[in-house]
User: What shape does this take?
Amino acid sequence: MLSCFDSASPCRSSFSSSMFSRLLFASLLLLTGPLSQMNVAVAEEEPPTFERDIRPIFRAHCFDCHGASEESTKGGLDLRLKRFALEGGESGAALEPGDPDSSYLLMRIESGEMPPGDAHVSQDEIDTLRKWIAAGALTARPEPEEIPEGIGIAPEDREHWSFQPIERPATPALDQLSAPEQVQTDIDALLMASMTPKGLTFSDIARKETLIRRVALDLTGLQPTEAELNQFLNDESPEAYEQMVERYLATPHYGERWGRHWLDVAGYADSDGMTEQDRVRPFAYKYRDYIIKSFNENKPFDELVVEQLAGDEFVPSPYQNLTGEQQDLLAATGFLRMAADGTNIGGFNTEEHRNIVMADTIKIMSTSLIGLSVGCAQCHDHRYDPISQKDYYRFRAILEPALNRENWRTPDQRLVSLYTDEQIQAAADIEKQAQELTVQRNAKQKEYMDAALEKELLNHPEELREKLKTIYYKPAGERTEEEVAFYKKYPSVNISPGNLYQYNTEAAEDLKKQAAEIETVRAKKPFQDFVPVLNEIAGQIPKTHVFHRGEPTQPTDEVQPAALAISVTDGGAVNISPNEESRPMTGRRLAYAKWLTSGKHPLVARVMVNRIWMHHFGRPIVATPGDFGRLGVAPDHPELLDWLADEFMQTGWDIKQMHRLIMTSTVYKQSSQSHNKGIEKDPENFHYWKKPLYRLDAEAIRDSMLASAGSFNRRMYGEPIPVKENDVGQIVLGVDKKAPSNRPGEDVPLYGEEFRRSVYVQAIRSKPHTMLRTFDAPQIVVNCEKRTVSTVAPQALLMMNSDFSLETSTIMAEQLLAEFPQNSKMQIQEAWKRSMSETMDAETEATALAFLEQQQAWLTEHPPENQDPNHPYETPEKQALIDFCQAIFSSNGFMYVD
Assistant: This one.
């Protein structure tokens, strides 16, 4: 059989192993080349200044001990201002301007004594310090006479690109571009402006087969069907491409695809995590379904943000007779319930564990919406970004009325019943009927047990009978020690419901039938459904305090809720005002959500359009989509990023419109083929002179295999498909019915559920689905801001040996054999078309037919010696076709989007 990434496999001739090597090399250049260098702010010809060059070094390494707070001026040394350093501390002046060798602070740093611990100042930073002192320890401006406690936000902090207001750049004039005829959108013009000085242009538009496959996989995560392919190929109208894009935007599979992308950053999981038990969250899928519906409805992103942060604010309490819309609004708050939370389990509902839930929720919220990782400010002022510890706790105060650590609610206590009044009444009526039957059964049971006792007492001496009878009817807790000891001597008198069958088998079978009847009656109750919700309890408004070193048992200053100060581009503040007195809730989350989506926030739109771009091109404009701070990577095309962000807001935060804009551009529609000029002038494709090639993600690989094989179950929404550990330790689909030996138990039929989309596969934190995990689906600990893309041997081995790969290839082969019996040519052509979305060319056809012939001959000569009962021997004709289908699924042409 052909191997997974064998260059001889029948994949597209346009993609070879050497091209893949170039792609991998280019991606490495992307991470280490010009993009990372864009973060360097120091101009070589300018002497260093304290504010721009030295304060960030002190902030990262020194402020914790020398200036972040009143208690952190060890040795009396404060390094927040140059003049404080000149004044020095207990050891005298820390600096000697113009004389680095005599500067005590520099000596301590160069010796490795400062800062204490394993983390030392880098040599580049030491060189900058030395250069600054030698130049006279310059400041950019006169220093203030007084400064408030803490590190504050300096003007240089606000100069960082991501904290600047979003400003729409002017579109370059066409006559200034290298190939104006290629420009179809402003996106093209902005990108071509950067490639024109290089003498580069876009590549030719890709073939129609390539375009429809690209669009289908991008928007739905599925290969185009044969009908979809033929409709587009046969449409010669000028609007054929745009209409094809619209058809895929309108399919319900769009929401499944793009909902899956958002679920990554939201940290979606179907289990609680935190403990070894990793308890299943049976209703978490309500949030997943809400997200899929929202993308399919093209809910504006600003509305999506507001509902996820504060959907409960729009549903009056108490929650009764909820409409479908109200249920969705409550389900939306599942976004703030995705963090691992094991507080249902004994020993894990502690101050420490509650604090972890809060910290992880803040991490999900900040990295997904504003592209900042604020977590290290929980313990001290952020070492790199302008986020103080007080800022962190002000931010935390927005959530605390709902995640109240003083009146904590466990995950089970955050479930809202969806029972209507009618269902409540129906359930009560049925329960009353069941109780009546229970009373009758209990009376009958007592009658049988009394009779059994009287009969058993006859087997004991007459003088003991009355005493034994008295003790029998006496409650166990009221028996004296003497009575207990006496009663133990006569165990046969200890008649109970559990052993009644030993005394009266017929009566026990009577009683068993009555119990079954009662359960049958109770089973008629309407199913009680629930939705996990994040909400507040009226009147419970906890005070938020800064925790000393992040320790929740050491609260210090009280703080009020506010947005991060650095996000306010005019230097003011966004305090979260108290809600109206007439409303029982604080309204903090709603007020914050409205601020985020007001159009004034510098990050929200940038972060979202960066993610949209990433999923269309396989790489984002900002290579660190969850970190737009100083530790992140600067945008490779900042003008394009801001243009997209502004356009996104101007068009009503319309995600589908952003797709249309990107997908109708030349940069998106161009070919992925390389050429010598592009490789020579821009080997890493920094300027997008060709469409970046990227591998399908895990879900798209599995789903496209199912769709190509014809076994795809398109049922949407609902409970997840369960996962279990099989007999070789892999996590596969199935009901977990482990035997007493902890070995996998009997198989439970899934009735076609195993063929549903991967977005519906149960996401258990401790048991990630083996195939999806092997192809880099995230194992959720907190959330996933950007998936890694690896190329490793286990991927090839899984495609060659896993039950899923073998079974899917078999299903496809069986369909082809049934549709085209005794016609190998049609079989391979159809297999290719269904998997690759194109007609097989003559050269590939000849190679494929030769493979089938050789494989059949080899299988005929080498029949298997030991039969596997789970995989019985197939005829050589069928097995060869199975091998061919499996080779297609394993090929680069199937795995990559070009």
Notes: Residues 1-43 have pLDDT under 50 and may be disordered. The radius of gyration is 34 Å. Residues 421-457 form the longest helix (37 residues). DSSP finds 35 helices and eight strands in the chain.
